Amino acid sequence: MKNSFFGKLTFWKVTAIIILIIAAYAVIVRFTYGLGAVTNLKDEFPWGLWIGFDILCGVGLAAGGFTLCGIVYIFNIKSFKPIVRPAVLTAFLGYLLVIAALLIDLGRPYRIWHAIIMWNPRSVMFEVAWCVMLYTTVLALEFSPAVLEKLRWKFPLKIIKSITIPLVILGVLLSTLHQSSLGSVYLIVPSKLYAFWYSPLLPVFFFLSALTIGFAMVIIESYLSSRAFNRQLELPLLIRLGQVMPVLLLVQLVIKIIDFANRGIFNLLFIPRTETYLFYFEILLAIIIPMLMLFNKKIRHSRAGLFYASLIAVLGFILNRMNVSITGMEAGSGTSYTPHWMEFFITLGIVTLGFIAFSYAVKYLNVFEKSSEQVVAESSVVNLAKQLGLQVDK
Q1: Helix (H, G, I), strand (E, B), or coil: what is residue 187?
Q2: Would you say 212 and 245 are in contact if contact means Cβ atoms under 8 Å apart?
Q3: pTM attached to this predicted model
Q4: How far apart are CA 263 and CA 251, in angstroms?
């Protein structure tokens, strides 16, 4: 069957199956023998790959949902509506997988619900926990029309559509809060986080980078979906996103330069050490290269150019989050950390599940809505066929 995961085995499907089997084994070991059996975490370094990648990167990479919804429903730029639903689906799956990763990372996952009844309003992590719970619920409601349309439940669908604007506003507020608050978590360790990545402006950097990478993820998701599902690429819309991205990247660069000047740490840029090299590499990938590429009109108007510029930006974003959570913390804590192979496979398994869930959603639900131009064109074809007395399958 077309698009069926097990219908026709390919290299990528076999790879996915192998990853999931190994990841499932690692998860069983984790819950049977504890974190010590599957991770290289220790008291001096309690947050590793699962926090740095699965949580910090996962939440940031899911930012396309609130950015696109805000553009369409708050700023009323309706031309972007055809790519809103896949962006919301990507965000929803991303947050579900973040929660799954958190359950694996927590020493006592059965207490994850404690934040609901045991309030600590002065804790940044308490605020993040509530925002993630509420925003995941908002994303579920925002994506529910695709499910309700499939089930043909007209009354619930009508209710959801009537509250779309309040949902979007709530989603944007919640996203703004916790995207920035993830940076605030590291404000409590000024003596442990290396100076390149510690800054009083960490919440600002986390929010701006998530906002930028939200556009990049929409471009990547649209490009890959068009190839995987034989759909037309909404190139004009993606070009407009590509116009905004370099501006946001330039803003980040300017703020970072001002921040370095205010803290007087430019001298650290000339110290030959691992942190310096990784910082240069991060700035190149996360800001300089994609910014220069997208400021170039020829590259920005190219399918491949948009995709590769966005991909480089995403890789730079991931490197930034890993530098904050691992590289910078290693330098400040005086310890070293290398993820256990089971940590890698559990993370790969979570990512793989995301791809599989997205493909099944596309197969069974109306994820890719038609643009107004496509609707008009199809209506014209149908009307012409009726006039000619031809039968048309819709």
Answers
A1: helix
A2: yes
A3: 0.89
A4: 18
Kindly state the tokens that stand for 329.
């913390």
Domains observed in the chain: 11-361 (1.20.1630.10)
352 Cβ neighbours under 8 A, 6+ residues apart? 16, 19, 20, 23
- Exposure on the CB side of residue 44, measured as CA atoms within 13 A: 8
Q: To the nearest 5 percent, what fractions of the chain are helix, strand and coil?
A: 75, 0, 20
Residue 58 has pLDDT above 60, yes or no: yes
CB 367 within 8 A of CB 87: no
Cα 147-232-239 angle, rounded to 5 deg? 105
How far apart (Å, rounded) are the C-alpha atoms in residues 265 and 285? Answer: 21
What's the pLDDT tens digit per position in 101-134? 999 999 899 998 999 999 988 888 899 999 999 9
Dihedral, CA of residue 99, residue 103, residue 104 and residue 108, to nearest 10: 160
CB 344 within 8 A of CB 49: yes
